[in-house]
Amino acid sequence: MNRPHPAVLTLLLAAGALGAPPARAQDRGAELDLFALDATLARETTVASGRARTIRETPGVVTLFEREDLLASGARDLADLLTRVPGFQLGGDVENSVAPGFRGIWGQEGKILFVIDGFEMNELSYGGFQLGNRVLLDQLERVEIIRGPGSVIYGGNAELAVVNVITRAAAVSGAGVSAGAGKLNGGTSAAYLAAAAGGALGEARAGLSGFIGTGMRSDRPYTDVYGDSFEMSDASRLAPAQLTGAATLGGLTLRAIYSEHATSMRDGYDTVSPREVDVRWRTAAAAASFAWKPSERLTVTPSLTYRWEVPWQAKTPDLVDYYYDVTNQRVTGKLVASFAPTSQISLLAGGEAYWEQGRVNQFDNGLLSFAGERTVEQYDVAGYAELGADTRFANVLLGGRFEHHERFGDSFVPRLALTRLFAPFHVKLLASGAFRTPSFENANYGVDITPERTRVFEAEVGWQASRALYLSANVFDLTIEDPIVFGFTGSDVYTNEARTGSRGVEAEGRVQAGAVSAQLSWSFYSPRGKNDVPAYEIPDHSGLLAGFAGHKVVAAAQIRPLSRLVVSPTIVFLSERYARDRLDGAGELAVGRTAPALYLDLFAAWRDLGVRGLELGVGLRNLLDTDVVYLQPYPGGHAPLPGAGREVTVRLRFERG
Amino acid sequence: MPERRHAAALLALALASPAAAEELVVVTQPEIAQYADVLAGLREVHAAVAALDAKDEAAVKTALGRGPGVVVAIGSKAATLVRGAGPRAVVGAAVLGGAPAPGWAAVPLETRAADALGALAVLAPRVKRVAALYPADAAAAEADARAAAKAAGLEVTFTPLADLSDFQGTFRHAADGADAVWLLTDPRLARPELVKFMITHCLERRIPLVGFLDGMTRTGALLSVSADFKAIGREAARLAADLEAKPPAGPGPFRFAPGRLSVNERVRDMLQLGGRVPAGAETFR
């Protein structure tokens, strides 16, 4: 790549900012900063948000990671983090890609929404978001995970869960840089540089955050179902780059993102490719919004977002199977009103509309089209509302979203949540509808394709047994009607099948005692009585769906023997898994078993190492050198995709704020 | 409202005659609404005030050249301007309190520590152990807080904040084992994302947070004692009169003005603290 990378500029700028001496409070008129921040707080805290909610009262099943949690965990990227969250597991797919499943359901194509700084990141061609050395945690402020549908507010793609990533661009005050590297037997597994810088001037605030890196998926051989193999250390590159920026002045907020995920692969779809192929995802987006507060009780926020992307780009006309070169665009306008007529009642109402276009970049070569055309365009309009009421008996949230899509017609999804905190217990009863609009390529390769529709019922109980001990458990019942399922009958095809889904339990315990924080979670799902999709079934194992373990246990701890030292062991256990990942004697795909697996990571970080703000972290990932494999959760003919073996990591971080 | 304050301040400036001996010389930035309130409070105690705009450095120099014994500087910009001009004593009003220095007295922006602890005791009588976080260079505020903690009989652990590079860890460590967290005035902690983090952490741990801005209370702090600018002005006038009568031999005194108390009743209900809302508190839900 000869062109200058935009992330490099940010990193240099941030690094330069580190050299500036910190100003004394009085010298910079810190009182004026305080007055400005007071005004900002007053503007940002509506009466509705003033009704302080904890996770225990939030009308959803939520996992939250603050910056310190992210840094202390030793997790390097979002994929690492999600493996530790109840309900999430990773699956493998074509072209060296890895994506999450949730509660046993494969989420690769548009079922799990990824949001970074308010930008929806699922690509428009297939609806996916690839993981693995993709979103580095060093420069994130917070990750909020809604373990359940979010369609009423977020629309399609928020069908099973929402992963909401907040980078430091919107929050950083000061500057920080970090660098990390990993070493596998097969070579350097990862290397990256990350930086963030920002600050306030009066009521104005601006920040930048970014990273650039490289790495590999695995140092192990990949062997396809036909027995051909290659060394993944030679062809499984994962090179991320991301730059996010945010600026606010009064009620005006401007945001922008550039995100790139450059990979290489030879695993292809089923057979090993004759040579290494570069595949790249690029997204750029910008948004402007203005929070207008005509009264103490009402906030109206119009916003406009433009997004450009080139996903799955593989410019290989000689390897037609992998060739993909399409540019997608979407323009979204929104108007959201938040109204709290009394301290017990709140109303959130919004309307939004988007226009989107997919365009084949090289139409002349005849390799790609949208049903014979170079472009496809469509629009969608939606309106939604949520009414919240705090009553003597429970906090009630009732909402719904109506959506009209130019090609796929009308959808309506309701939401009802009852939450009650009666210390030290809490109870949540949640019922949500969700839907997924087919993506460009779902429709392009679809046969009379229609949106899939989801119903989820959840119940959660929690008990704050003491300041040191918190326990919670939830049960769920998830049904997807008309699921969009990929199949191959001589060519790619998407069809709506009858139904799939799962039921299960997720339980968590958290302990905070002195210098030790510990978390233990167990996740269980079963598709019994819920799945009618043959492609996802595992014969003789009706309690499992393809690709995902029925049980997952995560145990993690952060031990601080010294105030500046944190030691973080993490254990993840997956029970046995099955997938159609091999051929039988007749040359047909057959079910294979992947044995239960235990993964152990160990990480330690020492901060203020000689210099205030300097931290050194070292880690051993997959200490037991367990075989990490990502199974394809549908019969696509792809063999298990290997992950990384034992890896030594190092992280150096310097931050001033 | 701010426009009216501006108008009042500008009118005061327009009417100000050159500093006469009996007049109290005040240097301020009249365009800042909070400083206009300080000036108004000051006038409630000392009617004869010559208010000078800090932007008009020539007028300030002329006035100071007449040798007033005491000058009140409202805000740090005015204070910086006046301190170099050589009056016998300077009262910094509504400035963030650093370390006392010779000839330098102040009624800082920080509020009386006893107000916050007193309100906490009424709202949450079972609270015994308090984690206090304060800016490392705010020596006067720290001293006031330590004295108030001792007087209240509370076990207060003080954590200085030099920079915020590992703030979340520092905060969690400080809050661990405490019955309440008390934030002394520190503009760096007023950033919305930090406020949200601190409130979430405290609510999840079911411990009250004591802040220093109304906005913190609205967001989910149990209570805040925020600056009462008129009270700061009144206290500054009294302090100036005292210094006029008896100039300090060493570092001037720092007198903390009473603040405005706000309480989040919903958080109070949630935490089941067993106390009551102090009289005169502004309440939010």
Approximately how much beta-strand content do the residues of chain A carry?
over 45%
The global form of chain A is globular
Q: Briefly note the structural class of the backbone of chain B.
A: alpha/beta
CATH class of chain A: Mainly Beta
- Oligomeric state: heterodimer
> Helix amount of chain B, in percent?
40-55%
Classified in CATH, the superfamily of the largest domain in chain B is: Response regulator
Secondary structure layout plus pairing:
The complex is a heterodimer of chains A (657) and B (285).
Chain A: H1 6-18, H2 30-44, H3 47-50, E1 62-66, H4 67-73, H5 78-83, E2 88-93, E3 97-102, E4 105-106, E5 112-116, E6 119-120, E7 140-146, H6 151-154, E8 161-167, E9 174-184, E10 187-201, E11 204-215, E12 221-223, E13 229-231, E14 238-249, E15 252-265, E16 277-290, E17 292-295, E18 298-313, E19 326-339, E20 345-360, E21 375-390, E22 395-405, E23 409-422, E24 425-436, H7 440-444, E25 452-464, E26 469-481, E27 484-488, E28 492-496, E29 499-513, E30 516-526, E31 551-562, E32 565-574, E33 577-583, E34 589-594, E35 597-607, E36 614-621, E37 629-630, E38 641-642, E39 647-656
Parallel strand pairs in A: 5-8
Antiparallel strand pairs in A: 1-7, 2-3, 3-4, 5-6, 7-8, 9-10, 9-39, 10-11, 11-14, 12-13, 14-15, 15-16, 16-18, 17-18, 18-19, 19-20, 20-21, 21-22, 22-23, 23-24, 24-25, 25-26, 26-29, 27-28, 29-30, 30-31, 31-32, 32-35, 33-34, 35-36, 36-39, 37-38
Chain B: H1 2-15, E1 24-28, H2 33-45, E2 49-53, H3 57-65, E3 70-74, H4 76-83, E4 89-93, E5 104-107, H5 113-123, E6 129-135, H6 139-152, E7 155-161, H7 167-175, E8 180-183, H8 192-204, E9 209-211, H9 214-219, E10 223-227, H10 229-245, E11 259-264, H11 265-271, E12 282-284
Helix pairs in contact in B: 1-2, 2-10, 5-6, 7-8
